[in-house]
Amino acid sequence: MSVFQYNRVDFFFTCLGLVFLLLDIGLDIFAAVSFYQEKAYVSLSILLLFLVGSSVLVQAYSWLWYSYEDFERQTKVESCLTLSQLRLLHWLQLGIYFRHAGVVEVSIRSFCTKMTEGCAVYLSHDLSMLRLIETFSESSPQLVLMLTIILQRGELDPVTVLKALGSASAIAFSVTTYHRSLRSFLPEKEKQQIVSSVIYFLWNLFLISSRLTSLALFASVLPCFMCAHFFCSWLLLLFFVWRCKTDFMESPVGEWLYRATVGLIWYFNWFNVVEGKTRFRTLLYHGFIVADVSLLCGLWCWRMNTEELYFEIPHTVIAAVSVVSIYLFGLLLKIIYYKCYHPNLSKEELKGVTSVEELARSSPLSGDEVDSGLVSGRSFPSPPAPDLKHNKRMRKLAENFYS
């Protein structure tokens, strides 16, 4: 029977995620103070809207997942709180930070003992998904806002470009961390080479950077139309999410919240939400985004060329073509990744996790480990019984991601 392995790379990603969390908090405070000192109250209001909206969204997910699990807590950090204290922390927008503290606790313990507890991988996954939601509801819009202000002020210089690239890298890193969290549930995880994560990080970096830059270019010349563009695009994407008939959350309200969130994520980047063949849906999505990026860059070129602004005409064309080309190059890297590094598993191969859940529920010895190696003739990880609800949520995402 195989067990989950928590290697040095996973521990490194957990620690680095904590560093990015603290850095993100510091940068948010710095940005808010800077806007206030500059008396840029409109920008400050938009920034606070992103920060507060994202925080409320993430806390809502955290609380819903606790409720789905009957408020069972697997770590000492979380267990020291009563239900009333846990509710208060979520109202104070601090719930996710205690989740992070719990993940750090089990990560250090698992790394030191060289043996991973079942809850370590599940808790790490939940945190990775919460960070992913926060990334696309706060960090991505915030980077678009910053780039828009920079373009409007004409403050393009190498240092500014490097800062923007660093922010985009943090977003791509969050996506990569979520990806590695999903791959933790694969058999023979030790074959997950670091190069696969590097390629995954790079193509996400190119796609996300191009998308965010096109939105910032458009917003810098036609800011009044930015809200209309987002709302119309989000409604269209929400419709397609609904047509996909997602089944991730355990309540109707939670499911619609999830669909609305996926529509928000799709506005910036692709995120698979249903099992089965995804080639057609992926092609349709990227075709839409390529057309949208081209349209936004084209409108920026037209606006810049019809007014005497700080860019010369050839430079605007080169910049617009470069943004679209970067997105296409990112798609090329994505194809290479899926051809060479992505584990394409069938639904039957992923049923080891499902079967463990069913066996544990039917077994009178529900507290004992179930030998999932008997399922499908392959050696699958064996999560303990208390993590079954985590397991159900994880199984859905794993089937969607690897089918």
UniProtKB/TrEMBL annotation:
Transmembrane parts of this sequence: 12-36, 42-66, 215-241, 253-271, 283-302, 314-337
Subcellular locations according to the entry: Cell membrane; Membrane
InterPro entries named among the record's database cross-references: XK-rel, XK-related_scramblase
Family: Belongs to the XK family.
Any one Gene Ontology BP term: phosphatidylserine exposure on apoptotic cell surface
Pfam families xref list: XK-related (PF09815)
Annotated spans, Disordered: 364-393
Designated name of the protein: XK-related protein
A single Gene Ontology CC term: plasma membrane
